[in-house]
Specification:
The complex is a heterotetramer, with 2 copies of chain A and 2 copies of chain B. By secondary structure, chain A is an alpha/beta fold. Helix content of chain A is 28%, strand content 17%. Chain A contains 9 helices and 16 strands. By secondary structure, chain B is of the alpha/beta class. Chain B has a domain at 3-102: Translation factors (Elongation Factor Tu (Ef-tu), domain 3). Chain B has helices spanning 33-38, 82-88, 124-137, 157-162, 182-192, 206-219, 256-259, and strands spanning 9-14, 17-22, 25-31, 44-48, 60-63, 66-68, 72-78, 95-102, 114-120, 141-148, 166-171, 178-179, 199-203, 223-226, 242-244, 253-255, 262-264. In chain B, 47% of the residues are buried. The chains are: A alpha/beta, B alpha/beta. Chains in contact: A-B, A-C, A-D, B-C, B-D, C-D. Bound molecules: flavin-adenine dinucleotide (FAD) (2 copies), flavin mononucleotide (FMN) (2 copies) and FE2/S2 (inorganic) cluster (FES) (2 copies).
Chain lengths: 325, 273, 325, 273
């Protein structure tokens, strides 16, 4: 057998030993899946979204299954940053993978304050900023759906921490490239794409929304083609590393995201269905590299072949009037 | 995290039998020492028929229904949608993936204590296992109330009688056993047995649990309910399975998969159930 | 057996005998599925997207399956409006369901010209305007992704025809309510929601996009929760009738859309999988009304119960800072 | 539309047999008079395993492989992905939904004309049916070239011999029959048989069809190819199955499901295949 392939990647100031990261909200506070495998083996772990104060979350039902998808309206329930740092973090010290906190707020100042609270804390390797939350100061539209407010959040977080800042985008926008550029300009070290898609489901028998919150966020295999497209768009738009996610269930899905240019990937919903999903992806990528004689996973990143895919189209390329689909 | 509290495993098991024992009601058994040796009444499994399939996406939760010969486990389930329909089509030798045992399980009654078991429909699934354990221990007085919509739905009477449990059967339409609701029968028994302080174990539809819990609280009786909840993971990582906690505690919601599925009646805010 | 339920609905100047419409691009030129059932039994039929000149469409592969979804980049291949009116339309005369043409263009003038061409044509009951196409005069972003250009298209079509105008929105926007309002103000008689979601897929073995066009539009069951949410948003935003579509496979799915307020629904991808899908939905709705003793399907439309769904949440409603999910 | 050109039906059929006859290669047979009575060689079916399932979403196209006793139809398929894997798991008595017969089918050779059939791998599926028809008609001279990667993949030799067809087998690794490519063998035969003007019928991988078509065109020989294409519907409504037409005609693309799947070699723009 040959030497093990190099799997480490750099996601903007944070070097991780492999490109597989547990996604926020689908991996608990970090060690819940320890009975199944050692979480130290992952590239990094992003814990569930934290806010300044504890949040109760939404009433049930909070989740409903849809075709190949999961619609959730958890309501970002969490114990608050203080309890996390005081009670949970110490018990995560034995985990050898970097712990990344995912933070959210309802005002720009909430985000800045969260960044300050985290700044001094040992054991937190980076900050992922969830900007899919309603901006209460400006009518309740999510921060991440407007380039200006997205940039302002990014700016204030970057200003208040020396830790690497990952901004996590929402897909529910007209032009994700614009948002990505704004966030990059504001100083984010990397961008993760994508959070969940807005959706709802109706119970015909009761004539009620299936989620108590009515609207939820769609994740899982159903969204994979859309997430992949958005990652591709963001990779084209910015120079900072992009972390891809959305519907990744196995190493094969992960490779699709790496090929379009994601520097690393996150595993979300898959953890719920298959508690070993993330580690199986690490192993799958290792085997794939061995099989394909790829020495370094970075050879794969952005290696999508788009040129010469068909001869007859070359001429069309210039013609903007070509209908897309 | 105290890993020993969650000695759960994921196992691909080979189905021993999968029989329709009542209308749309199936009993499935499979050998799995790892699961069987750890299982306690009230705990459950998260089951997936096809590890590759993406639709249905989520695992489905099923109570552990009982053990056979210390290495085989059973589940009892009703076909209500696509996941259970897929399950019902499986034959001997087909495989499923099961994660478990999950959840806390029932707190057993103290020695000599009288236990009233109230099962509505598929609520019998975990209570059968509890009955197995209680009758084997032989130092409890156990009475079971079993309710179904109609005679067609009735299952497991012979097996329960075989365990030697004192059994009262109700059907809503009176087509078998006593006509009426299982909750009424339980209530009447409580009134008659006023000298004793029994502990109640209930599993069934939410409306039934609510009535029992509220009455037990009112009578100041110990009562454990086994709750359902729409589960994303069963593992405590998604926070999907929220149940509102009573009072304004630190914990506004319990998570059925981790804090339950068995709760002491007064823990839950029944107003919103 | 009781009397048959009333299924007819009014979709903005066009009364159709039942709310089930065949979606553009998934029902050919109107009679291809005639071997399976009489298309006259449908509420209406929308033929494949037509342009001023014939369009060859994209090179293959044009379609690829994704989890519970279909990604297509047909490229709006069509024989052009002239050939349609001259050659296809006469043979559709025997169909007793209204024929609706779906039109698209690459400049605002293309749309206006299409409307003029259709205006005098007997046998065309209404016009559905596809605004998911690139606007070549303004950088190639789809008309439907900007309220102004969407409104200008709608305006010019309405100006040039007396036939009812349905504007079909794209979901790939930040705020679909804004676009809907703009289109309503421009005089559209109704709105259909939604066209496909942008997506892509990668063949890991060849490292190429699976579609020759790289990017395609996602349809089918995977998108249903998102489509339902968008329909709900548009119903809240406008007063004109809304036609819902996206992932409807059976009458049960159709009812979800009617409950959130869609006046009618369209069946797209389902036709490809089950050629009898649309007629089975008509029959399913009929049976449902009989079973539920609903005399008129309009009783269902918008009948979603959202009040009192949970007691504890009432207080929260005012609190905009509540995280959604 | 001329409905008589498309006398297609959708039928739920009950599987008679479903046997693995070669590596990952299955032969399935089912009775269906409506389909069998209409079927012509080169036509295909769109098959769905479970009418309720949403993943896989699309039907899968399979050539009609042959008829048995005038009321049973066969398909021959290779397991390459999830749709074919689901198909392979079906047992006698399980049902599938089939739409057909679809497409144009082969134009048969004129009386006395010599037919060369070239099958690469699963390309044998429609050509077996063509062989059935041609050998039954008894007024054609038929020679078949059959190529597989290795001996493990080889199927149907006995059945083809049973039809009395003149057969040449190649494997790429030489593990059975002649070592080499089926196209080379066909080419050599053409060179040797230079006195005759045979008509070629080819089905197999795109690269093989391209080589045969281009050589047949160069030699000015009649040649029919049975194309594949990623199909959304098989019914002519989605325009998914485009194949570039040769020349700059009115029709820039053919639709494999409607205009094909059988095309005369010169109709297709082989440059882009
Ligand atoms: C801890 C626990 C133990 C259970 N034990 C049993 C048992 O022993 N026997 C048994 O028959 N049933 C049991 N259930 C219920 C069982 O999980 C559901 O009937 C099953 O998940 C339905 O799956 P489906 O795909 O057939 O139905 P679906 O088509 O998914 O839905 C049908 C109905 O089932 C409900 N449902 C679907 N998924 C879930 C889920 N993940 N959790 C809860 N409800 C769901 C839906 O709300 C819907 O009303 C238990 C549930 C829980 C939470
Ligand atoms: C007219 C026609 C006749 C055919 N006849 C036969 C036959 O007789 N025997 C046989 O074994 N195969 C036949 N095929 C190919 C067969 O349809 C595919 O192998 C099958 O659809 C793969 O499905 P899957 O779900 O197992 O694979 P997937 O997991 O979907 O994909 C595996 C591979 O199959 C290709 N594929 C998937 N779906 C289609 C589709 N709808 N059309 C074409 N290619 C597809 C994919 O591009 C991929 O490379 C035929 C194809 C066509 C177009
Ligand atoms: C149950 C659940 C909870 C989630 N909670 C969070 C969260 O707290 N913060 C966040 O940024 N994203 C959250 N997400 C979004 C995921 O991290 C991820 O972006 C999304 O699910 C798409 O990836 P997937 O398809 O792999 O799940 C949550 C998703 C799910 C399903
Ligand atoms: C193969 C295909 C072709 C389509 N062509 C058109 C078109 O020409 N014009 C248009 O407005 N929409 C077109 N659509 C979009 C559909 O009409 C519909 O909006 C979309 O597929 C969502 O609905 P569904 O999930 O029911 O398919 C097409 C969709 C598919 C799958
Ligand atoms: S089901 Fe996921 S936390 Fe309970
Ligand atoms: S497969 Fe749909 S048109 Fe040919």
């Amino acid at each position: 057998m040959g030497a093990l392939p190099e799997l480490s990647v750099d996601i903007g100031g944070l070097k991780i030993k492999n490109p597989v990261i547990a996604a926020s909200g689908t991996f608990g506070y970090g060690d819940e899946l320890a009975p199944f495998y050692d979480p130290s083996l992952l590239g990094a772990i992003i814990v569930k979204g934290l806010s300044l104060r504890p949040m109760p979350g939404n009433p049930p039902p909070r989740i409903v299954e849809t075709p190949c998808g999961l619609l959730n309206a958890i309501g970002l329930a969490n114990i608050g940053i203080e309890a996390f740092v005081g009670e949970k973090l110490p018990s995560l010290a034995t985990i050898k993978a970097p712990i990344i906190t995912n933070i959210y707020g309802h005002t720009i100042e909430d985000y800045a304050e969260m960044a300050r609270r985290i700044e001094g804390v040992k054991g937190i390797a980076a900050v992922e900023v969830n900007i899919s939350c309603p901006n209460v100061e400006q009518g309740g539209m999510a921060f991440g759906r407007d380039p200006d407010s997205a940039a302002r959040v990014a700016d204030r977080v970057v200003e208040n921490t020396t830790k690497p800042v990952i901004v996590k985008l929402t897909p529910n926008v007209t032009d994700i490239g614009l948002i990505a550029k704004a966030v990059e300009a504001a100083g984010a070290q990397s961008i993760s794409v994508t959070n969940t898609f807005l959706g709802m489901a109706v119970d015909v028998a009761t004539r009620r929304p299936k989620l108590a919150n009515m609207v939820g966020g769609l994740s899982g295999p159903a969204i994979k083609p859309m997430a992949l497209y958005l990652v591709h768009e963001v990779v084209k738009a910015v120079r900072i590393p992009v972390i891809g996610l959305g519907g990744i269930m196995d190493y094969h899905d992960a490779l699709e995201f790496l090929l379009v240019g994601a520097r690393a990937i996150q595993v979300g919903t898959a953890n719920l269905v298959n508690p070993k999903a993330a580690i199986e992806i690490v192993n799958g990528l290792t085997d794939f590299c061995l099989r394909e004689k790829i020495k370094d996973i970075n050879e794969i990143i952005g290696a999508l072949e788009t040129k010469g895919e068909d001869h007859e189209k070359k001429g069309d390329r210039k013609d903007k009037s070509k209908a897309n689909f | 995290m105290d890993k020993s509290r969650y000695p759960m495993v994921e196992e691909v098991v080979s189905i021993g039998f999968n029989r329709e024992i009542g209308k749309d009601t199936f009993l499935m058994g499979f050998p799995c020492v790892a699961l069987t040796s750890r299982a306690k009444p009230g705990q459950f499994l998260m089951i997936q028929v096809d590890r590759q399939a993406k639709d249905p996406l989520l695992r489905r939760p099923f109570s552990i229904h009982g053990v056979l010969d210390s290495n085989r486990l059973m589940i009892l389930y009703k076909v209500v949608g696509k996941g259970t329909a897929l399950l019902s089509a499986l034959r001997e030798g087909d495989t499923i993936s099961a994660i478990g045992p999950l959840g806390n399980g029932f707190t057993l009654p103290g020695p000599g204590e009288r236990a009233l078991l109230v099962a509505g429909g598929m609520g019998i699934a975990p209570l059968f296992f509890l009955t197995q354990v209680l009758t084997r221990a032989q130092n409890h007085s156990v009475k079971m109330f079993l309710g179904f919509p109609t005679s067609q739905d009735v299952v497991l009477i012979d097996q329960l009688k075989g365990l030697g449990v004192d059994l009262s059967l109700t059907t809503e339409d009176g087509s078998l056993g006593i006509k009426g609701l299982v909750t009424d029968l339980w209530d009447q028994t409580l009134s008659q047995e006023s000298t004793q302080k029994p502990v109640t174990y209930a599993c069934g539809p939410a409306s039934m649990l609510k009535e029992i819990a509220q009455k037990a609280i009112a009578r100041n009786l110990r009562c454990y309910v086994c709750l359902e909840g729409y589960m994303g993971c069963g593992l405590g990582i998604c926070q999907g399975c929220a149940a509102k906690a009573a009072g304004s505690k630190d914990k506004p919601y319990y998570y059925v998969c981790q804090d339950g599925p068995v709760f002491s009646a007064e823990m839950i805010d029944w107003e919103v159930m």
